[in-house]
Q: What sequence folds into this?
């Protein structure tokens, strides 16, 4: 087997033009995720104030019945479920 010089290999690869073509094709395509519409963005905030006892109960329910879901996630899911049920009526 014959050893080739790295410079010769690179010159050969660049002479075909496919490398340059692929490089410029990639520059034309947008990268990343498509941006969401303003009405699809979830940027509205809701704040709940609970007593320590209420929060402890919420946290224990979330840990026991919802496989370790955080109390914040459980509150969000419950609120979203309530909203969707109300909008169906």
A:
């Amino acid at each position: 087997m014959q050893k080739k010089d790295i410079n010769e290999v690179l010159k050969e690869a660049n002479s075909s033009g496919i490398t340059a073509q692929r490089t410029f094709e990639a520059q034309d395509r947008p990268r990343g995720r498509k941006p969401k519409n303003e009405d699809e963005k979830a940027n509205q905030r809701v704040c709940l104030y609970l007593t320590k006892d209420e929060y402890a109960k919420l946290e224990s329910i979330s840990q026991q019945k919802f496989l370790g879901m955080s109390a914040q996630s459980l509150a969000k899911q419950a609120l979203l479920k309530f909203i969707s049920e109300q909008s169906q009526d």
Observations:
- The helical segments are 6-15, 18-28, 52-65, 71-88.
- The chain has a mean pLDDT of 83.
